[in-house]
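Handout, page 2. Input:
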Amino acid sequence: MNLHALRIFTEVASRGSVTRAAEALLLTQPAVTAQVRRLEVEIGLTLLTPQGRGVQLTEAGELLARHAQRLFAMEKEIEQRLQALKEGTSGRLRVAATNLPANLLLPVWLARFKREHPGIQLELVTGNSREVYERLLTFEADLALVAGGWEAEGVLREVLFEDELWFIVPVDHEYAGRQVPLADMMKEPFLLREEGSSTRQMLISLCIANNVEPPPVGLQFYGMNESIRSVISGYGAMLVPSLAARGFVERGDVALVHVEGVKLNWPISLCQRKADPLSPAAARFVARIKQLFASNKKIL
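Output:
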């Protein structure tokens, strides 16, 4: 069916006049009449009959007009939805994140973004650095936020800010608040994250670089909060981002240990696939985060 002719017929049907339809479409009256006649020939049915100065729909015309109006309303809705996707005001945004940003940063950032863009469906999944990179590279996530992490082929990393890594122990530990050599600190049983965790990799790399034996594994946890709770309960040492530990240190729940000659920075990075442009929704979210940092507003 000729959609151009159908559109013209629908205009005539809604206005009840070939003349008024021609004026609305900026066409001549003969051109409108010719398109309606063409449509009638194509379907083999009469659609309009004269009625005074206007036209009246036949039974076939009423049926066709009713369905055509729904068709063109659906077309308009499709165009509007596609435009919203293009502008990044609707659609889906899947974010993968490591433990620290997933627990301390993204809940606030995503809530703000959702208030500003209610039409975007947001999904957040959490994992260690290896798992997050894998989700990003297998297209299970549109964007990733990684604390620490290492370079991964195919991943473009942009550092948002630098955190620090702290050594913490129970408040009654003999090293609490003291400065000790790295070799002594590494004799303590450590609470370690699972394989694939950036903090675990950083601790091992630190030992290798300083020719020190890695610490004995006291307990292994999947989550950071669980590990910190064990230190609070009086067991083990831990290497932890300051963002995660600061509140516990300030309240006196755990104590810092100053390790001689060791200062570890901990980057928080936005990550995307190198060969794949961000979706409009992801680009809008990234722009909002950067705007937040540029305005020096509180990030938490």
